[in-house]
Amino acid sequence: MNNENTFHKGDAVSEEGDYICVPCGYQKHFKNGDAFTECTSCLAGTEKGHDDYVDGTELWEKVQSSGE
Ligand SMILES: [Zn+2]
Fold it and tell me: What is the 66 CA–ligand 1 centroid distance (Å)?
């Protein structure tokens, strides 16, 4: 496995679909042209999030559809 399916807060969404917050498992749908946000569940990527979670760390991971 590599990190080609993980994205940082602020990255542009290049593929519409569901993404999972790596630290907490929260699932969110992003559309083409959007930018990845902080996680609204665990607030990773914000100052209110995990103390050990720093900007620039992978946050959103693409959910692979089982139909492919
Ligand atoms: Zn989260």
Answer: 23
